[in-house]
Amino acid sequence: MIKALSRRRLMTGSAALAFSSAVSNRATAMNTLSPQALETLKDTMEAHVAEGRMAGATWLIHHDGVDHVGTAGTFALNGEGAPMARDTIFRVASITKPVTAALAMMLVEDGVLTLDGPVNDLLPELTDRRVLKRLDGPLDDTVPANGPVTLRQLLTMTFGLGAIMVFPDAYPIQKAMREAGIAPSWVLPKMSSDDYMKKLGALPLAAHPGEAFFYNNGLDVAGILIERATGQRLGAVMHERLLDPLGMKDTGFHVPAEKQDRLPNQYGPDFTNGGAELIAFGPEKGVDFTNPPPMDSGAGGLVTTVDDYAAFCRMMLHGGTLNGRRYLKADTVAEMTRDQLTPGQKTAPHATMFMDEGGAGWGLGMSVGLRKTRPWLTPGSFGWNGGFGTTAYTDPQNGLVGVFLSQNMMTSPEPPRTYMDFWTQARQAIAA
């Protein structure tokens, strides 16, 4: 155990050194973004708007200290509503996860949380868990868990419960999660964090802690762990420790009344009509960010702007520092942004769709690039995509941050053309 721990520390320290070196090397280059590629990006996004693929979008490319911000379209389909702007506020779904993970690791550095110790003291609902003998089996056909749940398992989403990629719901555990209101969905949990844990704790795990990757729920539980460790709502802790110091003034878990004119419609497929047409997804469909939620979802509940989210990404790009203030140690960032999954975990049926055709793994709260199977991936890049129409990645090797925010839900496991086109042109903008 001591040898393994020492090797992990050695590897983490080396990774942090390489991470810092990569950023430092890029900082001497000061390349200029290609005007031609940026114009092509603008034209491409306006074409997506004209063809009805999206109402609008705002994006930011940061490269070697230079920011480019672009917009296309309007707040509503068919050119209606206000034009998209730099300060437009978007519901960003799962790109919330890296922010929650960073906050959790700040508390680990402070000694408030432990990364590999049991979370039982703060989350007694996860004590003495039962585990399904088989994933498609009845809920009462279980065995004792082979160990306790840890924060690392929550952040790597290997604690034992989450999205089961069978559609429509076919397994008893899927149906039970849906009935309890804790299944991954565009509708965020409509209950208090204590009620969420009661409902989750009443169900068996789908796999032993640390055994298998199941998307999403681990970051909601991590957010609740933060709340119980600090005695505050997740949003309050996040503002105090991360959002306010970073200057993320328009980021939070709801949009206050005085800013709601900057929040565009949310669109998604009309499932009653085969999903071919886009329709508005508002409060009547469970998507409401105009009031404080009953639970701050660490997995998918943030709203933000391109400048706000880019500030977080730039902090991560620079190994945990921004504008002379340190938020995380460099070796903590290196640990967060290394692949934490085994080959078997990445290729399992309920994980593989999240691994970008084998080009990505998973770190602590975020995807980690292993090879270039998607235009947002390079070895060492990190970030994630959000189901409400958002993508944000950081690439230390190339000194690049890209943030693309739209209001069109993802409609399939395949990445939208808008994401692909944004990242293709962003890469061309820094390569020219």
Automatic annotation (TrEMBL):
Pfam families: Beta-lactamase (PF00144)
Enzyme Commission number(s): 3.1.1.103
Domain of life: Bacteria
Keyword tRNA-binding applies: no
Keyword Coiled coil found: no
Xref: InterPro entries: Beta-lactam-related, Beta-lactam/transpept-like, Diverse_Enzym_Activities, TAT_signal
TM helices/strands, residue ranges: none
Leader sequence segment: 1-29
GO molecular function annotations of the record: hydrolase activity
Domain named Beta-lactamase-related: residues: 42-411
Enzyme class, UniProt record, top EC level: hydrolase
Record key words, sorted: Hydrolase, Signal
PANTHER family in the record: BETA-LACTAMASE FAMILY PROTEIN (AFU_ORTHOLOGUE AFUA_5G07500) (PTHR43283:SF3), BETA-LACTAMASE-RELATED (PTHR43283)
Protein name stated in the entry: Serine hydrolase domain-containing protein
